[in-house]
Amino acid sequence: MSTRILVVEDDPHILLGLEEVLQSDGFEVAVCNRGDQALAAVARQQPALIVLDVMLPGLSGYDICKQLRARKVTTPILMLTAKSQELDKVVGLDLGADDYVTKPFGVRELLARIHALLRRTAGEDAGKASAASAEPFTIGAATIDPRTYQVRRGKAVETLTAKEVKLLQYFHAHPGEALSRDRLLNEVWGYGYYGTTRTLDQVIVQLRKKLGDNGGEPKCLLTVHGVGYRLANG
């Protein structure tokens, strides 16, 4: 059975082009051209991946992403945006998107990111079984429980993605060591990942928030300029 992808895009030319490209690559494609119909389309189609435009009639891609994650829908989301500002990309990732492509984009880049997301999701699903037996650990004042995908700080509880858990586990296993961005991407996203190091940087921003480490000067996940990141000792 072919892997089903749902494309939510209101521009008819882009929608038709995406449908043809994905079908030629062997995917089964479902389409939706309105934001206010996207949630129902996801429930009906049960796609393996969602290609989601940001600017949509009825409901924005940001709102769709937020509502899907609030409903515990973990389907990977690749956002399409004509906006190049860094803030727009961070907003999408903060709301639960897995990756983004800025318009105009090349067909090869789009397909590479889709395949990378699908491989990553398959790896995360396989990793959940092993993570279920992992013991909780602490970073700063936060306790991370890989079995529940949660981080606790006092009474505050945040939900973590499988990718975030794996990244924190890797930091915890290498305290005090300066870890390059490429190394972290290879270890957590996999060697087949086609994204950029900016994706890692934006995930670090979100993790600092969840760890309560997002003040003016982080105390746990430290930036090593020109290299990557380091988990502070102690």
How would you sum up this structure, described in words?
- The protein has 234 residues and is of the alpha/beta class.
- It folds into two domains: 4-122, Response regulator (Rossmann fold, 3-Layer(aba) Sandwich), CATH 3.40.50; 145-231, Winged helix-like DNA-binding domain superfamily/Winged helix DNA-binding domain (Arc Repressor Mutant, subunit A, Orthogonal Bundle), CATH 1.10.10.
- The chain contains eight helices and twelve strands.
- The strands form three sheets. Strands 2-1-3-4-5 form a five-stranded parallel beta sheet, sandwiched between helices. Strands 6-7-8-9 form a four-stranded antiparallel beta sheet, covered by helices on one side.
- A hairpin with a 2-residue loop joins strand 6 and strand 7 (142-145).
- The longest helix is centred in the middle third of the chain and has 25 residues, at 107-131.
- The model has no long low-confidence stretch (mean pLDDT 86).
